[in-house]
Amino acid sequence: MADADLGWAATLHRMWTSVGRISARDELAELILPPLQALPGVVAVWGLRHALDDDSVLEYRWTGVPLEGASRDLARALAAGRTPAGLSALGVADVLRDRFDLAGEAAGTILVAVDGTADVPVVQTCLGQVIEVTREAIRRLGQRRAEQAQQTRDALLAEASLQMDAVLDTTQTMQRVPRMAVPAIAEGCLVFVTEAGRPVLRSSVHVDMQRLSALLGDPATIAHLEQLVERAVLGGPVPDADTALLATRAVDLQPLHARGEIVGALVFLFDRDASAIPPVSFLRDLASRAALAIDNGTRYERRRQDVVTMQQHLLPTRLPAVDGLEFAAAYLVGDRILEVGGDFYDVVTGADGTVAALIGDVCGRGVDAAALTGMARHTLAALLQEGHTAQQAMARLNARLRLDGSWRFVTAGIASLRPAPGGVGVEWVSAGHPAPVVLRHASGPERGHGGGAMLGVLAEPKISESELVLTPGDTLIIFTDGLTESRGPDGVMFEDHALGETLDRLRGRTLDELVHALSTASAAFGGSRTDDIAVLAIRAGKEQLA
């Protein structure tokens, strides 16, 4: 027995040193069953894997006598503690059994069938030692699986955060959340948000969209989901979900907590085994990140609307009606910086009947820039209405800026419109502002002259002057640099690449369509903009200025 003991000791050592390299239960069976089979008097070794929920036998592994047909019935009976008839027919005198149980893992039973020549105590000892090896191998497999699952969940959370934080549009965010969850986390995911005190389904994704459509088309299903979400939002205990009604195996509902408020809930639908459902802590973390992204988007939209509203207060509520002239204006607020910009425009009629269209741009954004924008627009408009020339109005504004000691400069352009032979005469006065464009009704667009220096910089303003004539149907377009300096992905500006082409395409449109389509085309060309766009267009009609 001494030699046999030494042989088994070496075998047991080899099994223990191999435990760390086991990556699947199949490999484990190949490691532990043959050494038991090699013991004197062993007829067969059977390995059984049990189910987590009802302890039934799920898988069979064997050496010696195959576990097929009637042998499987024998093995199940033996694992349950019974000794059925029929063992003698296999040449088996006795069956030794041992079982391992590990929290969270499927249990297993090893059966060793021996004949009359076996040293039963020795085989029983060897079986017990193999059970210890098996338990440790299964523990390590579970630990490694848990670590891999955690790494996967961490990666999913990181990717979800990147995806959800990549946009500030609430609708896009709520569409991205369920797409990140399905199918990696759950078979289905629904996003409910609270609107006017009621839960509203805003987005949903499922691996079987036809099945989801059928569910969401059932009023009883919707009512049940809304009841669950409403209870979650109120903070009380949430009743169990009706999995039969929802046609799924399991449901998890996670409230969307953001800055001390519950703004909605995520509903996860699971068809997978319970062991494959992510832990509640992970689902809660995902919901927390989704809630913050949704809340950020909501606040962004609210802030943007506030900016748009404030910006509108810096612009004229309406443009005047002048015989022989038509006016239209458009204003787009830059998306990436949620502060009021400094672009402005206006149309005024002077004491002598001269019509003046003015446009300008204050350096910077924010409250200070907004205050200066309002002052600049009203100063120029008031002086022009009082009969001052465009040059005088700009000089007065320059003096005021210098007196206030503001570091912010202002670019401005004024188009003074008067009757002229064959049309409307335009005197364009510029203080560092982009040159206007004339869209002729019968030919291509023509660029005017800019020039001059920004107001508020020099003690004596440097102003550029030029003249042009609008014939009936011609359109004068003045704008801020946000229009022309929108840059495409390659760095090319809208002015250099697409301005002329866009104006040619828009010839013949109504004036209102023209200004809105032009500003929108520039915005689309630039993608994510940081600057506002102001466009003011004046069209000479058939009836000229009196």
Can you give a write-up of this model?
By secondary structure, the chain is of the alpha+beta class. 41% of the residues lie in helices and 25% in strands. The protein is built from 14 helices and 18 strands. The chain has helices spanning 2-18, 25-37, 70-79, 120-165, 170-181, 209-216, 219-234, 280-313, 367-385, 390-404, 481-484, 494-497, 499-506, 511-526; strands spanning 42-50, 57-63, 94-100, 108-114, 188-195, 198-206, 250-258, 261-270, 325-332, 343-349, 355-362, 410-420, 423-431, 437-439, 445-447, 464-470, 475-479, 533-540. It has a five-stranded antiparallel sheet. Helix 2 (25-37) runs antiparallel to helix 4 (120-165) and helix 4 runs parallel beside helix 8 (280-313). The termini are far apart.
Put the structure in a nutshell.
With 546 residues, the chain is of the alpha+beta class. 41% of the residues lie in helices and 25% in strands.
